[in-house]
Amino acid sequence: xxxxxxxxxxxxxxxxxxxxxxxxxxxxxxxxxxxxxxxxxxxxxxxxxxxxxxxxxxxxxxxxxxxxxxxxxxxxxxxxxxxxxxxxxxxxxxxxxxxxxxxxxxxxxxxxxxxxxxxxxxxxxxxxxxxxxxxxxxxxxxxxxxxxxxxxxxxxxxxxxxxxxxxxxxxxxxxxxxxxxxxxxxxxxxxxxxxxxxxxxxxxxxxxxxxxxxxxxxxxxxxxxxxxxxxxxxxxxxxxxxxxxxxxxxxxxxxxxxxxxxxxxxxxxxxxxxxxxxxxxxxxxxxxxxxxxxxxxxxxxxxxxxxxxxx
Amino acid sequence: xxxxxxxxxxxxxxxxxxxxxxxxxxxxxxxxxxxxxxxxxxxxxxxxxxxxxxxxxxxxxxxxxxxxxxxxxxxxxxxxxxxxxxxxxxxxxxxxxxxxxxxxxxxxxxxxxxxxxxxxxxxxxxxxxxxxxxxxxxxxxxxxxxxxxxxxxxxxxxxxxxxxxxxxxxxxxxxxxxxxxxxxxxxxxxxxxxxxxxxxxxxxxxxxxxxxxxxxxxxxxxxxxxxx
Lengths: 311, 228
Known about the structure:
The structure holds 2 protein chains of 2 kinds.
Chain A (H helix, E strand, L loop, with lengths): L1 E8 L4 E3 L19 H10 L8 E5 L1 E7 L3 E6 L5 E3 L2 E2 L5 E4 L5 E5 L5 E6 L33 E4 L8 E2 L11 E5 L8 H9 L3 E6 L3 E5 L14 E2 L4 E3 L7 E3 L6 E2 L3 E5 L4 H6 L8 E3 L2 H20 L2 E2 L1
Parallel strand pairs in A: 13-21
Antiparallel strand pairs in A: 1-4, 1-11, 2-3, 3-10, 4-9, 5-8, 5-10, 6-7, 6-9, 12-22, 13-20, 14-15, 15-18, 16-19, 17-18, 17-20
Helix pairs in contact in A: 1-4
Chain B lengths: L1 E3 L6 H16 L5 E6 L3 E6 L6 H14 L10 E6 L9 H7 L4 H10 L2 E6 L6 E4 L14 E4 L3 E5 L2 E4 L4 E3 L2 E5 L20 E6 L2 H12 L12
Parallel strand pairs in B: 4-12
Antiparallel strand pairs in B: 1-3, 2-3, 5-6, 5-12, 6-9, 7-10, 8-9, 8-11
C-alpha cells in the first residue's frame, strides 16, 4: 500500500482521470482534465495507462509526501518543482523517496497543472472514470478538492526509472478557432462582426465548469433563451448579460442559453490554459478544418508520448 | 454535431429526436461515440479519425428522414408516487393561491395529467417533463431556494420536472417522490430516459415513509407497466 499525504494543498487540487463520457444522456457531466494533452503526458512520464488518475491543480500545486518510492511528474506549464529542496524540473519524471517532500510551485504561462504519480491514484471508479466532479461532489477523492492532511492511496507500480521527453511539447499559437453554432442564427451580422473582430480575454471568473470572457457584449437578436439543448465542450453560450461564456469539463450536459459558436477541440485546452487578461481573437473555421486540426493535435501529443525515453 | 428537429417544446419533435437516438443505438454508424437526446435536437459526438463530419451529417439526415417517428408502443410507462402533504409540499399552497384554486384542485390536475419525459439534463438524472396542464403553469421564484431535496416534483413556468439531486432551484415544488432518480450504483444510473411516459399518484405521509425506507434499501419501488 503506497500512501500519498497532502502536506499543503494547492489551489483546487482534484483527482482527475479520463472524462466520464458514457452517461451524458443521463445528465452526468463529463468532468476530466481541463488540459487533456498535459494530463496524458504527465501520466506517460510516470508510466501510467489511460485509465489512471492524477492530480490537477489550478496555478499553485502544493506539497506532498509518499510512503513508498514512486515516480512523479509535473506538467501543464512552467512551474518550479522541488524534492527536498533540490530542483526537479517539470515535464520529466523523478524518483520521490519515502519521507521526501515534493513542493510544486506556481504555474507560469498556464492555469491548470498536473501532478502524476506512478501507479496512479487509487480511488473508486464511478460510472467508468476516477475523475472528480467538484460541483456535483461526485467521483475522485470524496468528490471534493484536496486539503492539507488528506491521505490518499496510490497503486503500486513495478517500474521506477525516471523518464523524459525528447522534444518540447509546444502548441501552435494564433487565434482561438471556432465553428459556428449550434445557435449561430440567434446572432445578427453586427454581433458576429464584434465576435470575430474584437479582442477577448479570459476573466477571473473561471473554474472547471466555465470561463467567462471579457470582451464586447454580444446581443442575441432572437433572444437569450432557447429550448434547452445539448452543450458540446467548448461551446460559447451567451446569457442575457451578453457575456461570452466558454463551457468546459464540468459543464452541464444541457443548457438554455444560445451558443454562438463552439471552440474546436484542438484549441480548447489552449483556451483553458490562457492566462487571465491576455487578449486573443476568435477565428471562424469550417468543420472539416476543425476535424483536421484535432487529428494534428492528437498526433502531436501521441508523438511526444511515443518518444518518451528513460532519462 | 447537433441534428435539429425543431425549436419548440413539442411532442412530435421530441418523438423524432428519440426515434433517431434509439435507431442509432440499435444500428450505430461507425465513429459515433455518444448521443444526447434533448427537447429539440440530438447532440452527436463522433471521432473524426473514424468518420468525417460531412459524411456523418449526410447519413444522419438520411437516417432521420427514414426513421419513423417514435413508435409509442416502445415508450415505457410508469406511475410515480408523490406525497403532496407536510414538508414535501413546499409551494403547494402558494401555487394554489396564485392559480386561484384549492390545494386539492392542484393535486387533482397534477395526478390527472399524463407527462412525457422530454429530456434528462441539467443534473444527473434530472427529468424535464412535458404535459403540465395549462392551469398549473406558475412562474419561477424571483430568488432561487438554496436547498430543494432530491425527488421534489416541480413546476417552472410551463415546464414540469422531478429533481434528482439536492440543490438550489427557483422552481415551485408541490410534492416529493420517494423514487431515486439517480443512483450511481445502479446498472442504469438515471431512472428515467427521454421518451418515458409517467403519471403521478398521491400517497399519504405514512405510505411515503414506507416507500422512502424501501428506496433507501435499494428496492425498486416503481416499475414499468402496460400503458393506461
